[in-house]
Design goal:
- By secondary structure, the protein is of the alpha+beta class.
- It has 4 helices and 25 strands.
- It has 4 domains: 84 residues, conserved putative lor/sdh protein from methanococcus maripaludis s2 fold; 89 residues, Elongation Factor Tu (Ef-tu), domain 3, CATH 2.40.30.170; 66 residues, Beta Barrel (OB fold (Dihydrolipoamide Acetyltransferase, E2P)); 61 residues, Helix Hairpins.
- The longest helix has 32 residues.
- 18% of the residues are buried.
- The N terminus is likely disordered.
Length: 350
């Protein structure tokens, strides 16, 4: 009985030791398993142009808007939209009752001033009138002649004459309509015009990167499988007060066998020639952001290091960071970044 008790104690002692060893081994193994696995992406400085994405409307380069100099009631419009016209052709006219009366009034004023001046000169010769009287009536005659020139000029511009041969793109008014001075009545395109342009608007942060001649790629819904090339031909010096953006004009290179039309909407990717060095960061490296800042993780030996950066441009699957924000860094953590904390130990997998 005594020996049986000693054997039982020995068995219990060795069993307890074995359980402690297993528990200690399991804890160490679990610690190694809990190290998060992450993937990294290589990054480097680049000056590859970042496209400016916009859209705009196609227009002919030689578009002309025609209007009456004076306001009035439209007497007759002689052409329709899409009609071809010749240089010197009458396109529209106003009712000239008022303008004709002004011409007649000015002519009568000249006649009266001429008679008065002739009479006062005779009186001056007889020493009845003074030289001042003669000079005053001479001035009145000169003013009457100026009034006649103005009235005749307005009379001549009560008609719209085609300045070039071309085609009527739009007609903005109708017969018997009251129209103000300078309000467009027609928009025409010259036969001598070459090609089309497209106008877009860009923000102030983008207009500083654009130069004349910069390349752009265009696509149109009307030609889904065709890519058009264009170049920057005009850059506005001031923003449009209505929209707050800067108008940019692109000159479209013609495509053989393809005809564009006024009003086509084009999708534009404009590539500025001037681009400061930047890092291109995959979007899945972004873990959080606030205001104008964002956080990403890089590797510091075998630990994750959190870095705060300021995105300069945000694309569909990437964002850019200036060279100063990530000076010397060559890798960022992508997959698994959302579950990390600063200085957490990580293991990199491919």
């Amino acid at each position: 009985m005594k020996y049986s008790f000693i054997i039982l104690l020995s068995v219990l002692f060795f069993t307890a030791c074995k359980e402690d060893y297993v528990a200690e081994e399991t804890e160490e193994t679990t610690s190694k398993i809990n190290i998060p696995a992450v993937r990294v992406a290589d990054i480097s400085l680049t000056t590859e142009p970042i496209p400016i994405i916009a859209s705009g409307m196609v227009g002919a380069k030689s578009e002309i808007k025609l209007a009456f100099k004076t306001g009035g009631v439209i007497n007759q419009i002689y052409v329709r939209e899409t009609q071809r016209v010749k240089k010197g052709q009458l396109l529209a006219s106003l009712r000239t009752t008022e303008i004709d009366a002004q011409v007649k009034k000015a002519q009568q004023g000249i006649a009266k001033a001429t008679r008065d001046l002739a009479r006062i000169k005779k009186m001056y010769a007889d020493s009845v009138a003074t030289l001042e009287n003669v000079e005053d009536l001479t001035t009145v005659l000169d003013l009457a002649k100026s009034d006649l020139e103005i009235a005749q000029f307005n009379q001549a511009y009560s008609k719209i004459i085609a300045p070039v041969s071309g085609k009527v793109l739009r007609k903005f008014a109708e017969n018997n309509e009251l129209i103000g001075p300078g309000v467009p009545v027609f928009q025409i395109i010259s036969n001598g015009g070459k090609g089309y342009n497209l106008k877009i608007g860009v923000a102030d942060k983008d207009v500083t990167r654009i130069k004349l001649g910069d390349k752009a790629k265009l696509t149109f819904d009307a030609f889904p499988n065709t890519e058009f090339i264009a170049n920057v031909s005009e850059i506005a010096e001031a923003a449009d007060p209505r929209t707050g953006v800067f108008p940019i004009e692109l000159s479209i290179t013609p495509q053989k066998g393809i005809s564009l039309r006024n009003g086509f909407i084009g999708k534009v990717a404009l590539f500025p020639s001037q681009q400061s060095p930047y890092y291109k960061i995959p979007m899945n490296a972004l873990v959080e952001g606030y205001k104008n800042k964002a956080n990403i993780y890089t590797l510091n030996k075998d630990k994750a290091k959190k870095i705060s950066v300021q995105p300069a441009y945000i694309g569909n699957d990437f964002f850019t960071v200036s060279a100063n924000d990530l000076n010397g860094i060559t890798q960022v953590i992508t997959d698994g970044a959302a579950y990390l904390k600063n200085e957490m130990e990580v293991k990199v997998v491919k």
